[in-house]
């Protein structure tokens, strides 16, 4: 509950940052988003804002991954430069815990700026607690209403069952009129949530098998496959003959300038 509002804040901020990047044309912004040890906000935010890539704690950050992203950016900007196509700003989203203390947002931005070698620039942006503010979105309001109604109905059902059981065992009139409900059933310690299109109330003991308590997240990461869709939309591992020729020309010019 609340993830839709957080995503709206992230996408609004990324749209503003992307406009700034596009006004400077050849600029890549590395945007740091929250989410703890879960990369959900990074993946969904990257998909919704049209980011080129995203870094999440589930996969970590390696030099190989950075090199692939650099090659992709060089290829895209090189083709736009040689083909006289107007360049536009691009985004890379990074989860706040991805890469730990080594590959920070500033470090990644500095690496991109250095490897761009004038072909593109790089800046960093940390959204911070901006993601936790704002007015709740309509979807989150509807979800909260649904969960509240179902939760109260479930509590009433459990309480009435306990009262009926107490009344059947006690002949004391005061206990019947003002009952105190106690239960030792493990199923009454539960969590309400949304699974697919259904609302489910799951006992806490059943959730232990699919919960990473140390990292405070679930083990069923259904959204992880959407990360590949982000790269597909950004045209990763796809190039035409013109793009390949433009990349070879730029790399050749760089090699000559270095020598």
UniProtKB/TrEMBL annotation:
<dbReference type="GO" id="GO:0070095">
    <property type="term" value="F:fructose-6-phosphate binding"/>
</dbReference>
<keyword id="KW-0460">Magnesium</keyword>
<keyword id="KW-0808">Transferase</keyword>
<feature type="domain" description="Phosphofructokinase">
    <location>
        <begin position="1"/>
        <end position="155"/>
    </location>
</feature>
<dbReference type="GO" id="GO:0061621">
    <property type="term" value="P:canonical glycolysis"/>
</dbReference>
<keyword id="KW-0418">Kinase</keyword>
<keyword id="KW-0479">Metal-binding</keyword>
<dbReference type="GO" id="GO:0005945">
    <property type="term" value="C:6-phosphofructokinase complex"/>
</dbReference>
<keyword id="KW-0067">ATP-binding</keyword>
<dbReference type="GO" id="GO:0016208">
    <property type="term" value="F:AMP binding"/>
</dbReference>
<keyword id="KW-0324">Glycolysis</keyword>
<dbReference type="GO" id="GO:0046872">
    <property type="term" value="F:metal ion binding"/>
</dbReference>
<dbReference type="GO" id="GO:0048029">
    <property type="term" value="F:monosaccharide binding"/>
</dbReference>
<dbReference type="InterPro" id="IPR015912">
    <property type="entry name" value="Phosphofructokinase_CS"/>
</dbReference>
<comment type="pathway">
    <text>Carbohydrate degradation; glycolysis; D-glyceraldehyde 3-phosphate and glycerone phosphate from D-glucose: step 3/4.</text>
</comment>
<protein>
    <recommendedName>
        <fullName>6-phosphofructokinase</fullName>
        <ecNumber>2.7.1.11</ecNumber>
    </recommendedName>
</protein>
<dbReference type="GO" id="GO:0006002">
    <property type="term" value="P:fructose 6-phosphate metabolic process"/>
</dbReference>
<keyword id="KW-0963">Cytoplasm</keyword>
<dbReference type="InterPro" id="IPR022953">
    <property type="entry name" value="ATP_PFK"/>
</dbReference>
<dbReference type="InterPro" id="IPR000023">
    <property type="entry name" value="Phosphofructokinase_dom"/>
</dbReference>
<dbReference type="GO" id="GO:0005739">
    <property type="term" value="C:mitochondrion"/>
</dbReference>
<dbReference type="GO" id="GO:0042802">
    <property type="term" value="F:identical protein binding"/>
</dbReference>
<dbReference type="InterPro" id="IPR035966">
    <property type="entry name" value="PKF_sf"/>
</dbReference>
<keyword id="KW-0547">Nucleotide-binding</keyword>
<keyword id="KW-0021">Allosteric enzyme</keyword>
<dbReference type="GO" id="GO:0005524">
    <property type="term" value="F:ATP binding"/>
</dbReference>
<dbReference type="GO" id="GO:0003872">
    <property type="term" value="F:6-phosphofructokinase activity"/>
</dbReference>
<dbReference type="GO" id="GO:0030388">
    <property type="term" value="P:fructose 1,6-bisphosphate metabolic process"/>
</dbReference>
<dbReference type="Pfam" id="PF00365">
    <property type="entry name" value="PFK"/>
</dbReference>
């Amino acid at each position: 509950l609340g993830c839709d509002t957080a995503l709206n804040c992230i996408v609004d901020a990324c749209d503003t940052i992307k406009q700034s990047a596009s006004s400077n044309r050849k600029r890549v912004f590395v945007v740091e988003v929250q989410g703890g040890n879960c990369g959900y906000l990074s993946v969904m935010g990257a998909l919704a804002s049209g980011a080129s890539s995203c870094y999440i704690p589930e996969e970590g950050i390696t030099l190989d991954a950075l090199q692939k992203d650099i090659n992709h950016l060089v290829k895209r900007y090189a083709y736009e430069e040689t083909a006289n196509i107007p360049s536009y700003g691009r985004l890379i989203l990074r989860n706040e815990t991805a890469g730990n203390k080594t590959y920070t947002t500033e470090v990644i931005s500095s690496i991109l700026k250095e490897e761009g070698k004038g072909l593109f620039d790089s800046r960093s942006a940390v959204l911070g607690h901006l993601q936790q503010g704002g007015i709740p979105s309509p979807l989150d309001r509807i979800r909260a209403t649904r969960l509240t109604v179902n939760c109260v109905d479930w509590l009433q059902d459990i309480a009435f069952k306990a009262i009926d059981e107490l009344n059947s065992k006690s002949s004391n009139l005061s206990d019947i009129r003002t009952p105190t409900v106690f239960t030792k059933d493990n199923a009454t310690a539960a969590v309400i949530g949304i699974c697919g299109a259904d609302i489910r109330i799951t006992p806490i003991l059943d959730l232990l098998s699919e919960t990473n308590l140390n990292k405070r997240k679930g083990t069923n990461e259904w959204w992880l496959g959407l990360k590949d869709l982000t790269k597909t939309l950004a045209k990763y591992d796809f190039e035409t003959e013109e793009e390949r020729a433009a990349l070879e020309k730029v790399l050749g010019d760089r090699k000559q300038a270095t020598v």
